[in-house]
Amino acid sequence: MRDPSIGLPLLILGLLAAAAGIINFERWGNAFTFLDPRYYDFANRHPELAAVASDYGLFNLSRLWIGGLYYATGIPHLLKAVPPFDQFLHTRYFGLEAPPLTPILTNPLTVLLAGVGLFRLWRKPNLEDGGLAILRLALIGHASAVALIFSAAYLAMRYRFDLAPFMTLAMLVGYRSVSLTAAVISDRWRERLGSTAAALCLLGILGSHYILLVHKVWSTGVPMEVRLALFPFAPFASAAFEP
Question: Cys-Cys link to 154, which of 45, 84, 91, 95 (CB 3.0-4.6 A)?
Answer without folding.
Answer: 95
